[in-house]
Protein backbone atom coordinates (compact mmCIF):
# COMPACT_ATOMS: atom_id res chain seq x y z
CA UNK A 1 0.00 0.00 0.00
CA UNK A 2 2.54 2.61 1.09
CA UNK A 3 5.14 1.70 -1.53
CA UNK A 4 2.55 2.04 -4.27
CA UNK A 5 1.45 5.44 -2.96
CA UNK A 6 5.03 6.61 -2.57
CA UNK A 7 5.93 5.52 -6.11
CA UNK A 8 2.99 7.58 -7.40
CA UNK A 9 3.88 10.54 -5.19
CA UNK A 10 0.56 10.54 -3.37
CA UNK A 11 -0.25 10.48 0.33
CA UNK A 12 -1.95 7.85 2.40
CA UNK A 13 -4.71 8.72 4.85
CA UNK A 14 -4.47 6.93 8.20
CA UNK A 15 -7.47 7.53 10.42
CA UNK A 16 -9.44 6.28 13.40
CA UNK A 17 -12.47 7.69 15.19
CA UNK A 18 -10.71 10.48 17.11
CA UNK A 19 -7.39 10.52 15.26
CA UNK A 20 -5.26 10.83 18.38
CA UNK A 21 -4.39 7.30 19.53
CA UNK A 22 -4.92 4.30 17.23
CA UNK A 23 -4.07 5.96 13.93
CA UNK A 24 -1.16 7.78 15.56
CA UNK A 25 0.14 4.51 17.02
CA UNK A 26 -0.01 2.87 13.59
CA UNK A 27 1.80 5.83 12.03
CA UNK A 28 4.50 5.80 14.72
CA UNK A 29 5.07 2.06 14.24
CA UNK A 30 5.25 2.54 10.48
CA UNK A 31 7.86 5.31 10.79
CA UNK A 32 9.85 3.27 13.30
CA UNK A 33 9.82 0.22 11.02
CA UNK A 34 10.19 1.77 7.60
CA UNK A 35 12.65 4.57 8.47
CA UNK A 36 14.30 2.94 11.51
CA UNK A 37 13.38 5.86 13.74
CA UNK A 38 13.37 5.69 17.50
CA UNK A 39 9.99 6.07 19.16
CA UNK A 40 10.96 9.52 20.38
CA UNK A 41 12.09 10.65 16.91
CA UNK A 42 8.93 9.26 15.28
CA UNK A 43 6.79 10.92 17.97
CA UNK A 44 8.53 14.28 17.41
CA UNK A 45 8.12 13.93 13.64
CA UNK A 46 4.37 13.28 13.91
CA UNK A 47 3.74 15.85 16.65
CA UNK A 48 5.33 18.62 14.53
CA UNK A 49 2.77 17.87 11.85
CA UNK A 50 -0.25 17.09 14.03
CA UNK A 51 -0.21 18.63 17.47
CA UNK A 52 -3.02 16.69 19.12
CA UNK A 53 -1.59 13.19 19.39
CA UNK A 54 -2.00 10.99 22.47
CA UNK A 55 -1.42 7.26 22.02
CA UNK A 56 -2.82 5.40 25.01
CA UNK A 57 -0.51 3.99 27.67
CA UNK A 58 -0.82 0.38 26.46
CA UNK A 59 0.00 1.36 22.88
CA UNK A 60 3.05 3.32 24.07
CA UNK A 61 4.24 0.24 25.96
CA UNK A 62 3.88 -1.84 22.81
CA UNK A 63 5.76 0.77 20.79
CA UNK A 64 8.58 0.79 23.36
CA UNK A 65 8.83 -3.01 23.08
CA UNK A 66 8.83 -2.72 19.29
CA UNK A 67 11.62 -0.15 19.54
CA UNK A 68 13.65 -2.51 21.73
CA UNK A 69 13.26 -5.25 19.12
CA UNK A 70 14.22 -2.85 16.32
CA UNK A 71 17.24 -1.41 18.17
CA UNK A 72 19.96 -3.04 16.02
CA UNK A 73 18.43 -1.62 12.81
CA UNK A 74 17.89 1.74 14.50
CA UNK A 75 21.53 1.94 15.58
CA UNK A 76 22.73 1.02 12.08
CA UNK A 77 20.50 3.71 10.52
CA UNK A 78 21.66 6.27 13.08
CA UNK A 79 25.33 5.52 12.29
CA UNK A 80 24.59 5.74 8.57
CA UNK A 81 23.00 9.17 8.96
CA UNK A 82 25.86 10.46 11.08
CA UNK A 83 28.38 9.15 8.55
CA UNK A 84 26.49 11.02 5.81
CA UNK A 85 26.74 14.22 7.89
CA UNK A 86 30.21 14.28 9.47
CA UNK A 87 29.63 17.80 10.81
CA UNK A 88 26.90 16.40 13.07
CA UNK A 89 27.65 15.21 16.56
CA UNK A 90 25.67 12.86 18.73
CA UNK A 91 24.21 15.92 20.43
CA UNK A 92 22.33 16.98 17.32
CA UNK A 93 21.57 13.53 15.93
CA UNK A 94 17.82 14.01 16.42
CA UNK A 95 17.91 17.03 14.13
CA UNK A 96 19.91 15.04 11.59
CA UNK A 97 17.39 12.21 11.74
CA UNK A 98 14.51 14.63 11.29
CA UNK A 99 16.14 16.16 8.22
CA UNK A 100 16.59 12.68 6.76
CA UNK A 101 12.86 12.00 6.92
CA UNK A 102 11.84 15.44 5.73
CA UNK A 103 11.25 17.07 9.08
CA UNK A 104 11.31 20.79 9.25
CA UNK A 105 12.55 23.03 11.98
CA UNK A 106 10.36 23.45 14.97
CA UNK A 107 11.08 22.98 18.59
CA UNK A 108 12.37 19.82 20.12
CA UNK A 109 9.35 18.07 21.54
CA UNK A 110 9.81 14.89 23.46
CA UNK A 111 7.53 11.94 23.94
CA UNK A 112 7.86 12.18 27.70
CA UNK A 113 8.15 15.95 28.16
CA UNK A 114 4.53 16.78 27.39
From TrEMBL:
Question: Per UniProt, what is one Pfam family of this protein?
Answer: DSPc
Keyword Oxidoreductase applies: no
Molecular function terms, GO-annotated: MAP kinase tyrosine phosphatase activity; MAP kinase tyrosine/serine/threonine phosphatase activity; protein tyrosine/threonine phosphatase activity
- One Gene Ontology CC term in the entry: cytosol
EC id: 3.1.3.48
Q: Which InterPro entries match?
A: Dual-sp_phosphatase_cat-dom, Prot-tyrosine_phosphatase-like, Tyr_Pase_dom, TYR_PHOSPHATASE_DUAL_dom
Instruction: List this protein's GO terms for biological process.
Output: negative regulation of MAPK cascade
Q: Where would I find the Tyrosine specific protein phosphatases domain in this sequence?
A: 1-53
PROSITE patterns on file = TYR_PHOSPHATASE_2 (PS50056), TYR_PHOSPHATASE_DUAL (PS50054)
**Residue ranges of the region described as Disordered:** 78-114
Q: Does the keyword Metal-binding apply?
A: no
Transmembrane residues, as ranges? 12-33
Q: Which UniProt keywords apply?
A: Hydrolase, Membrane, Protein phosphatase, Transmembrane, Transmembrane helix
Locations of Polar residues compositional bias?
Answer: 88-97
SUPFAM superfamilies listed in its UniProt record? (Phosphotyrosine protein) phosphatases II (SSF52799)
Q: What is the similarity comment for this entry?
A: Belongs to the protein-tyrosine phosphatase family. Non-receptor class dual specificity subfamily.
Q: Can you say what this protein is called?
A: protein-tyrosine-phosphatase
Please spell out the taxonomic lineage of the organism that makes this protein.
Eukaryota, Metazoa, Ecdysozoa, Arthropoda, Crustacea
Amino acid sequence: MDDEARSKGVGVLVHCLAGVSRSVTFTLAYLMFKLHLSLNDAFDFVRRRKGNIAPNFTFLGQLLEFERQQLPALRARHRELLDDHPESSSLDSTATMSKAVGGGGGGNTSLFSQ
